[in-house]
Amino acid sequence: MYKLFLFLGLFFLVLAALSYLFQGGFLGRLPGDIVIEKENYTVYIPITTMIVVSIVLSLLVNFLKW
Q1: Distance between CA 2 and CA 8 in Å, rounded?
Q2: Per the confidence metrics, is the pTM higher than 0.90?
Q3: What is the tens place of the pLDDT at every residue in 21-38?
Q4: CA-CA distance, 37 to 44, in Å (whole number)?
Q5: Helix, strand, or coil (residue 1)
Q6: Rounded distance between C-alpha atoms, residue 66 and residue 64, angstroms
Q7: What's the rounded Cα separation, in Å, for the pair 32 and 52?
């Protein structure tokens, strides 16, 4: 039962941190993210952001398995 509470606590902590970072604009506009702005449309491809989130989630899952 304690593992469930630990996992939920860590999950909500990471979720809050990601929400704070996205709201502040830090994590949403990293160098390496592709932004194409034209007159009628904007295309945003967050490649670096996806890599950072993937690494953080992989480390979290490996820590929980350990």
Answers
A1: 10
A2: no
A3: 766 556 667 788 888 899
A4: 8
A5: coil
A6: 5
A7: 11
Query: Which one is predicted more confidently, 20 or 23?
Result: 20
Per the listing, tokens 């929980």 go with 64
- Concatenated DSSP letters of 7-37: HHHHHHHHHHHHHHHHHHTTGGG-TT-EEEE
Greater confidence (60 vs 29) lies with 60
Q: What 3-state DSSP class applies to 66?
A: coil
* Residue spans per domain, the chain: 2-65
Q: Determine how many CB atoms are found less than 10 A away from the CB of residue 52.
A: 15
Is 63 buried (19+), middle (13-18) or exposed (0-12) by CB count in 10 A? exposed
